[in-house]
Amino acid sequence: MIDCIPGILADSGGSAPWLDCSTFKMTTRAINSRRMRVNDVELNVIVLGEGPEVLLVHGFPDDHTVWRNQIPALVDAGYRVIALDTRGCGDSEVKPREGDYAIDKLVSDLIGVIDALGIAKVRLVGHDWGRCRPGVSPWSIRSAWTAT
Predict the structure, then answer these.
(1) CA 91, CA 115: separation in Å to the nearest integer?
(2) What is the CATH number for 123?
(3) Structurally, how many domains does the chain consist of?
(4) What is the pLDDT of residues 11-42, one digit of tens each?
(5) Is the residue at 27 inside a domain?
(6) Domain-located, residue 55
(7) pLDDT tens digits for 108-146?
């Protein structure tokens, strides 16, 4: 199941000024990065924090680092944050064929990560093409996820 976090990205800068992030500093050591193989692709996945899960999906050609300001704010607010590099981006595996990047593959990758982490409910946040790619929406992921 997918729902939203009202107001977490309230201002145009994407930060949450109403949260005190002084207790958490985003550093290379703070990132808990892992490699996960799902759907025949190896993805770089960041998992931080405890609490309700939030899945952050970046746009093209970005990677998980576009969330560098939101990750500590969400962790400090009591969320478990999952931010991945989608296939072909960041530190995730680059696949050779154009067809390897079809929307259904991206949706399947997101579902594969969610399932591999044993998550039953996730809050989905997308940026740029991670938000508005045709076929990538909370509805398409919910539909594909519940069908599996």
Answers:
(1) 21
(2) 3.40.50.1820
(3) 1
(4) 334 443 433 444 444 444 345 678 999 999 99
(5) no
(6) yes
(7) 999 999 999 999 889 988 876 555 454 455 545 555 555
